């Protein structure tokens, strides 16, 4: 357990960062996020660079003002999006050329440009451009991408950042232990404000992912924040906390929320299902969120079946609250030196739905 200091406030870790790719956590207002206990949100430099454009956000006075969120913001560089969404991408050591997935326009971005964009956004935590590979990935290709990622991270660090803006290094190296080790070694040599474990949750089997996360989290300096990118489900977060990861982000709470899937202390619940037609209990009897305090499963089911927007909002809100509540409980358990017990209790209830 720790505290991460940023220009827009302190963050207690382990923490979960609700994802607001486009400068909004889908369907939720900043006030609702605060009420859920969010300490930090995540946005994406690639998406905001394409729309509305860095100049618009700079003129607005930065992303905090633009989206009316006064707490910390971490921006992802968009490396992952360039490698997964963009069309016709060409990478070389200088940077990456790609076509926008929105209008097909060509762009060329260097690692230095990507830091410049995040400076314009006014992020508290900046991520360098990295080269992401898919799973499975041949070792020679993974090695080139890892070395390029390190080189780009070094160049990113040389770009001036605003006062108290943090820069993390991203560990790549696919599923190859020696590449991951070398990457950690080189990044810690350069020194960053924190470190991220990238290139996981890209289709690899779960046990392989656990091994890599375990290895990398263990190799990284313990007194720096360790951010596991894009993971995930409650059980994966708990597992990764045990390995030493202490920052997380994932679209799952809001994406599932919009589909009518709620995370509860007894596991996942699909609100459209017929057993909930006359179920007047809240989504989760143990939950203190606005949705659970005021609405029944039967009503939420009705909202989804009639395609009412309020349904998407209420289940998203509950899910975000559930995730942030989970992190709060994890922090309490760590502080009281009973994390193992907490993990066992939580998972047995969550998996058995009993
Ligand atoms: Zn709730």
Task: List its traits.
354 residues, alpha/beta, eight-stranded parallel beta sheet, three-stranded antiparallel beta sheet, 15 helices, 18% strand, binds zinc ion
Notes on the protein architecture:
Helices cover about 45% and strands about 20% of the residues. With about 350 residues, it is an alpha/beta fold. It has an 8-stranded parallel sheet. Helix 1 packs parallel to helix 14. The model has no long low-confidence stretch (mean pLDDT about 95). It binds zinc ion. Zinc ion binds near residues 284, 287 and 289.
Helices and strands in order:
Layout: E1 2-6, E2 9-13, E3 15-18, H1 30-36, E4 41-44, H2 45-50, H3 54-59, H4 63-67, E5 73-76, H5 79-84, E6 87-91, E7 96-99, E8 106-109, H6 111-121, E9 125-126, H7 139-157, E10 166-171, H8 177-190, E11 194-197, H9 206-219, E12 226-228, H10 234-243, E13 247-250, H11 252-258, E14 261-264, E15 267-270, H12 290-294, H13 297-305, H14 309-335, H15 339-352
Parallel strand pairs: 3-13, 4-5, 5-9, 9-10, 10-11, 11-12, 12-13
Antiparallel strand pairs: 1-2, 6-7, 7-8, 14-15
The protein binds zinc ion.
Zinc ion binds next to helix 12 and helix 14.
